[in-house]
Design a protein that fits this description.
Length: 66
């Protein structure tokens, strides 16, 4: 089965950094992630984490463009 483009990392070496970033953002927004499986968190909490990750990445990219 082919992997969809949305789940494939463009830079596989960045996995550890992205995971660390995910846990940092989760902590900032008050979502308790545990090591390993986190499929039991709500969609709302997952959205908070992902949305804030994107927001921070956009801010970082904008700062680099200055």
């Amino acid at each position: 089965m082919a992997t969809s483009n949305s789940s494939r990392r463009l830079v596989p070496e960045a996995k550890e950094a992205l995971d660390k970033f995910k846990y940092e953002v989760a902590s900032e927004v008050g979502v308790n992630l545990k090591n390993g499986y986190n499929g039991d968190i709500s969609s709302k909490d997952a959205g908070k984490i992902g949305g804030n990750m994107v927001k921070k990445m956009i801010q970082q990219a904008e700062n680099q463009m200055k």
